Amino acid sequence: SSGINAEWPLRPGDKEENVLQVLELYKQKVKYLTGNIDFLKDEHHKILKSLHEEIERMKYENKELKFKLIISDGNPPAWMQEKGWHDKKESKSAVSSSPSRRNHKVYDEEISLLRDNLSHEKNKNKVLQEELNAMNSLDLDCNLNESPDEFDLDVPNTIEECYTLISSLRSENDAQQK
After folding, report:
1. What angle do CA 27, 31, 33 make, to 5 degrees?
2. Neighbours of 165 (CB within 10 A)
């Protein structure tokens, strides 16, 4: 009876009634505490859910900012410089030594290499296009100067003639190798 409130009227002769009152008091307390636990569980769930949503939102925003940084050729936008987010003087800061910062440098190098390769390939294409144009202009000049009668080509007209030609060429080749 030491755990019972002193304001509770206890009668020494009614032990059963006292036990029933204590049980009723404990039932009410359990019901009250269960309600509190349920409330706290709901609040905890709501907070966790909102934190997870915030994390996802921040991940998305981070991806967008990384994309914008890559697109801007590694030169941060003015608003990042104003806020001090990209200070080149702080080379030993936690931001610049982080793995994502090192990855950014690797990406910059790769982008630079790809740009150089692209420029090289564009130059090769330009040279090849000029050579092709020169060859086409020579072909046109040759074709204009020569009449079709000057060509002496014995081209087979049917598949059978092709097989016959191939067979005769093989025979000539075999004879030359012996």
Report:
1. 115
2. 13
* Burial zone of 152 (CB within 10 Å; 0-12 exposed, 13-18 middle, 19+ buried): exposed
| Residues whose CB falls within 8 Å of the CB of residue 1, separated by 6 or more in sequence, listed in order | 10, 18
Which sign does the torsion angle of CA 32, 36, 41, 46 carry? positive
CA 51, CA 57: separation in Å to the nearest integer?
Answer: 10
Query: If you search the block for the tokens 């990406």, which residue do you land on?
Result: 107
**Rounded to whole angstroms, how far apart are CA atoms 72 and 66?**
10
Reported as a single tens digit per residue, the pLDDT across 51-65 is 999 999 898 988 888
The pTM of the full predicted model, rounded to 2 decimals, is 0.33
How many Å is the Cα radius of gyration of the chain?
Answer: 45
Whole-angstrom distance, CA of residue 154 vs CA of residue 171: 18
Tell me: the pLDDT tens digits for 86-135? 544 444 444 444 556 667 777 888 888 888 888 888 888 888 888 888 88
Residues in the chain: 178
